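haha ok so turns out i had the wrong file open the whole time. this is the CORRECT one, sorry everyone. sequence first:
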Amino acid sequence: MTMFPLEGALESPAAAARREIAEEHRTLRTLVERLEATADPEALHRRLDELRGLLALHFAREEAPDGLHRAIDGSAPHRTVSVQGLFEEHREYLAELARLAEEARALVAGPVAALREGVAELCRKLHEHEAAETELLSGALYDDLGGGD
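then structure:
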C-alpha cells in the first residue's frame, strides 16, 4: 500500500501516458543494447524474438487511444501527422524484425547446425584416435616390452 494513495490520481492522463511510454522505452533501450552486444547466433535469434514481442506490445499500446494520442493530449494537434508517421514506422520495424529473426533461425538451423555437427564429428574422431593411440602404446609397453609379465 502506498503512503500517498492520491499520488497517481493527481497525474493527468497525458502525463500518465508519457510516463508509461518512457518506462517502456527504457526497457526497450536495455534490450536493444543487449542485442547490439550479442554475437552468438542462437542468443541473437532469442533476443530478436524477445525484442519483436516487446515491441509489438509497446507499439500496440502507443497506437491505442490512450497511448501517444493521449500523451500529446490535444495540446499539440499539429503533431498528429508525425504520430501517424511513427505508427507506419512501427509496422516497418516489426516486419524487419520478423525478417531478421527468420534469417537468424535459418542460420542456426542451417550453417550453424552443420558446423556444430562437423565439430562434433571431428571431436568423436579425435577421441577414437586418442583411444587407438593409447591402446597401441599400452600394447607396446606391456606386451612387446614385457611389462605385462
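The longest helix spans residues 80-144.
again sry for the mixup
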